[in-house]
Automatic annotation (TrEMBL):
<protein>
    <submittedName>
        <fullName>Putative GNAT superfamily acetyltransferase</fullName>
    </submittedName>
</protein>
<feature type="domain" description="N-acetyltransferase">
    <location>
        <begin position="29"/>
        <end position="175"/>
    </location>
</feature>
<dbReference type="InterPro" id="IPR016181">
    <property type="entry name" value="Acyl_CoA_acyltransferase"/>
</dbReference>
<dbReference type="GO" id="GO:0016747">
    <property type="term" value="F:acyltransferase activity, transferring groups other than amino-acyl groups"/>
</dbReference>
<dbReference type="InterPro" id="IPR038764">
    <property type="entry name" value="GNAT_N_AcTrfase_prd"/>
</dbReference>
<keyword id="KW-0808">Transferase</keyword>
<dbReference type="InterPro" id="IPR000182">
    <property type="entry name" value="GNAT_dom"/>
</dbReference>
Length: 302
């Protein structure tokens, strides 16, 4: 990790760099900052191949990347040999000097299954810690099961806010014109759970144990594959589970009306819960958000 190779005396930063280097080795990539126009142009082209966006509304352009890089922001790529297979872009955020917002992270083709995204995020964390940044935020589509598991379990981040139709409709190969609801995610880089996740000990959820403890289904999958929303009293219980479909991107392509029903249902259940003061306590690999209302204002704590 040449761009982080200055002498390191702070143990937490040294460990973050070691974690990032280990993740890169296991993924078979080298990760380095993007510093010239050719690399930024390749990053722009890679993002276009992954998202296939509306030409009038690209997520990034070479010119934007050049400006962000000149201003000292975070631009990095994952390489297999000379081939760019992943890219991540972030910019400094408020509060000034302590936060970074990760705008986009994407991995192409077969490299997606080699944990390259994990390696990129750990590089991003080490880069941020080296500059005194302690919080990274980003948004993701809460209906995409693999992303929820990646962000909340594998990285140990937390869901901070539900953002309805955050970007407005996006005509690309991933969003398919659906409303762009997002979860704003906070990654507290020095939190014990994050440090454990970056060392290879993810924040797992035991669904069976939660059910045994009385967790109710606030949102489930009905026999036809659609969303089944529980009555309001069930959704207001201290601990509930909210399901997401196995592959919402396939639904958008094959059954767009059903995908939109899932969007509305999750917004009603998860969005309303977060706006009322509940928190997301984790994500079960089987496809359930864990909603904890025990600390809501006015509710007795357990």
């Amino acid at each position: 990790m040449a761009d982080l190779a200055a002498p390191v005396r702070e143990p937490r930063l040294a460990q973050a760099i070691a974690d990032a280097e280990r993740a890169a080795r296991r993924s078979g990539v080298s990760i380095r900052e993007l510093t010239d126009v050719a690399a930024m142009d390749a990053a722009h082209a890679l993002v276009d191949r992954i998202w296939r966006p509306d030409p009038a509304n690209p997520p990034v352009t070479t010119e934007l990347l050049r400006a962000l890089g000149k201003a000292g922001n975070y631009l990095a790529g994952a390489y297999t040999g000379a081939e760019l297979v992943g890219v991540t872009v972030g910019f400094f955020a408020a509060p000034s000097g302590t936060a970074l917002h990760s705008h986009i992270t994407g991995v192409a083709g077969p490299a997606r299954w080699r944990h390259v995204g994990y390696a990129l995020k750990l590089h991003q964390r080490a880069w941020a810690l080296a500059r005194g940044i302690t919080t990274i935020t980003w948004t993701f589509d809460p209906l995409v099961r693999r992303n929820a598991h990646f962000n909340l379990t594998k990285l140990g981040a937390v869901a901070a806010e539900y953002l309805p139709d955050f970007y407005g409709p996006m005509q690309d190969s991933i969003n398919g014109g659906d409303a762009t609801d997002r979860l704003l995610t906070r990654w507290e880089l020095t939190a014990p759970g994050v440090e454990a996740a970056c060392a290879g000990r993810p924040r797992t959820v035991d669904e069976a144990a939660l059910r045994a403890a009385g967790a109710a289904e606030a949102l489930a999958v009905d026999p036809a594959g659609g969303p089944r929303v529980a009555p309001a009293p069930e959704r207001a219980r201290p601990l509930t589970l909210a399901a997401v479909p196995p592959d919402v991107e396939a639904l958008r392509a094959e059954r767009p009306d059903l995908a939109r029903r899932w969007r509305r249902a999750l917004r009603e259940v998860l969005g309303d819960a977060l706006s009322e003061g509940a928190r997301v306590a984790g994500f079960a690999r089987e496809g359930w958000y864990v909603i904890d209302r025990s600390d809501e204002p006015g509710r007795p704590t357990r």
